[in-house]
């Protein structure tokens, strides 16, 4: 998933990509690495909450 996030961040300008809101799936286990390397805050949706 980290490579997909890198690809997305390279596609979008920094003005468009400010935060990520993600679910609690294991595919986002790299969230700390994303926050550190890109300075993009990651927010987790509440369990069972409607988007």
H-E string: HEHE
The largest sheet, given as strand count, sense and whether it forms a barrel, is: 2 strands, parallel
Q: What overall geometry do the principal axes of the alpha carbons give?
A: globular
Low-confidence blocks of residues? none
- Strand arrangement in the largest pleated sheet: 1-2
Q: Structural class per helix/strand content?
A: alpha+beta
State the total count of DSSP E strands. 2
Distance from first to last alpha carbon: 21 Å
* Quaternary: single chain
Radius of gyration: 11 Å
Strand content: 5-15%
The percent range for helix content is: 25-40%
Describe this structure as you would to a colleague:
The chain has about 50 residues and is α+β, with helices and mostly antiparallel strands. The chain is built from two helices and two strands; from the N terminus they run αβαβ. It has helices at about 1-10, 30-40, and strands at about 20, 40-45. A two-stranded parallel ribbon has the order 1-2. Helix 2 (about 30-40) links the parallel strand 1 and strand 2. It starts with a helix and ends in a 7-residue tail after the last strand. It comes from Veillonella rodentium. This is Transposase and inactivated derivatives, IS30 family.
Summarize the structure.
The chain is of the alpha+beta class and 51 residues long.
Describe the protein's topology.
Blueprint: H1 2-11, E1 20-22, H2 31-38, E2 42-44
Parallel strand pairs: 1-2
């Amino acid at each position: 998933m980290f490579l997909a996030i890198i690809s997305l961040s390279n596609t979008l300008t920094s003005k468009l990509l400010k935060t990520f809101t993600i679910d609690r799936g294991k595919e986002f286990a790299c969230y700390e690495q994303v926050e550190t390397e890109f300075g993009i805050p990651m927010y987790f949706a509440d369990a069972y909450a409607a988007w």
